[in-house]
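Researcher: Please predict.
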Amino acid sequence: MAVLPGMEDWVDEEGPNAEEVSREAQEAFEARDDVPWMKDYYALRQEGWPWRVAVYIAWASTPAKGRWPKTQEELATQVLGLRSSRAIRRWKEKNPAIEDRILQAQRELLFMYRRDVFEALVESASDPSPRSHPDRRLYLEMVGEYTPKQELTVGASDLEEADEAELRALAAAPGEDDGVE
């Protein structure tokens, strides 16, 4: 399996049997059938992440509430076969891409539901009842058909070229009611 550049010779723990401990911990982890984020782990391995780092990224990408194991220290000692979570801190210091990949994994979850959210927004925005007004407004903003007044800006060049009547109109504009709340 390919390993990401710069991570070819990472040593997670030092000692005479470090490779054996790592191999045993990996085998024990991969034999589990109760890890909810195992699919994410295997996807990260396919990307080239070392097994322990892939476990950490998959674990850290899950919501803290209900996470197994509960803490990073428990992950390090009970799953990864490390003596402490110090090695994980070193990985993150050496490679900022780890935190970037965690954020990417968290965003991927949001994008999985994007279509459902858009469909719900369209359904609600299409409802003529007054309670759907916020969804209509959001929809119109998203498609570029409506810009709230507070977001309208006037550039300095616009002011320099404006005559007195235009300046008075611009000055009065924020107080005018355009019929949109």
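Model: Residues 114-173 form one domain.
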